Backbone:
C-alpha cells in the first residue's frame, strides 16, 4: 500500500511544521552557528526529541529516536498501515556553494527495500546564517526514491555510498516508482564497480613496482 505520508498535502505540512518548529526555538548560541557539524548535531538532536510534533498523529505510531551513530536511521516510526520508516536527518547551509552528504550504503538499502513496507526517508533541512543567527528556510521530507538520479552519485566506501552530488541542486521526481529507482541504482552500480576495479588494479600495479624497487635496494 502506497504511504499516505508522502501525499502532497501531508508531506508539505510535515515540512512546514519542521521549519516553523526550528525557527521558533533557539538551538545554539552565536559562537557555534558557523560550524556545520555543530548545527547538524543541534538540529538532529532537537528533531529526534520533537519529531512527534511534526508527524500526523492520526497516521503515525511507535516513534523511536534511540539509534547508534552509525545506524541507518536517526529516527524511526511506523504508521497505522504497518509501514516502517527510517529517517536520515541532514542539514544544508545555503551560504555554501557545495555540499555532498552521504545518504546510505547501497547494500543496506538493497536489503532494507527487500520489504515493500520499508521506507528510507530523507529529512533535509536547509538553513542560512544572517547576523550570527540561524534561519531555517526550507525542508524536504521524502523517500529516497523521489530523488532523481541526476542529482545523486556513488562514493567509494564499503559496497558504495549513495550521495547527493550537491545539496544546492536537489532534483525531485514525485512520479518516480521504487522499482524504476532501484533499477537505476543497479545500472549506476554496473558502471561504478568496474571503474573501482580499474582503480584498484592500478594501485596493485603501483605497489608491485614499489615492492620491486625496494627488493633491489641493499639491506
Residues:
Amino acid at each position: 500500500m502506497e504511504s499516505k505520508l508522502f501525499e502532497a498535502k501531508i508531506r508539505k505540512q510535515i515540512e512546514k511544521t519542521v521549519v516553523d518548529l526550528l525557527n521558533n526555538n533557539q538551538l545554539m548560541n552565536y559562537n557555534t552557528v558557523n560550524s556545520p557539524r555543530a548545527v547538524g548535531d543541534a538540529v538532529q538532536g532537537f528533531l529526534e526529541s520533537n519529531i512527534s510534533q511534526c508527524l500526523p498523529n492520526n497516521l503515525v505510531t511507535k516513534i523511536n529516536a534511540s539509534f547508534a551513530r552509525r545506524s541507518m536511521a536517526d529516527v524511526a516510526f511506523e504508521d497505522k498501515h504497518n509501514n516502517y520508516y527510517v529517517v536520515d536527518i541532514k542539514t544544508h547551509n545555503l551560504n555554501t556553494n557545495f555540499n555532498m552528504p552521504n545518504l546510505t550504503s547501497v547494500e543496506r538499502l538493497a536489503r532494507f527495500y527487500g520489504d515493500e513496507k520499508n521506507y528510507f526517508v530523507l529529512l533535509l533541512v536547509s538553513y542560512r546564517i544572517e547576523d550570527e543567527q540561524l534561519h531555517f528556510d526550507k525542508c524536504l521530507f521524502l523517500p529516497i526514491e523521489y530523488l532523481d538520479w541526476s542529482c545523486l552519485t556513488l562514493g567509494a566506501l564499503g559496497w558504495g555510498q549513495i550521495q547527493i552530488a550537491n545539496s544546492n541542486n536537489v532534483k525531485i521526481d514525485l512520479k518516480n516508482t521504487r522499482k524504476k529507482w532501484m533499477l537505476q541504482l543497479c545500472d549506476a552500480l554496473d558502471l561504478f564497480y568496474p571503474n573501482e576495479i580499474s582503480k584498484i588494479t592500478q594501485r596493485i600495479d603501483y605497489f608491485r613496482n614499489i615492492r620491486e624497487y625496494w627488493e633491489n635496494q641493499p639491506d
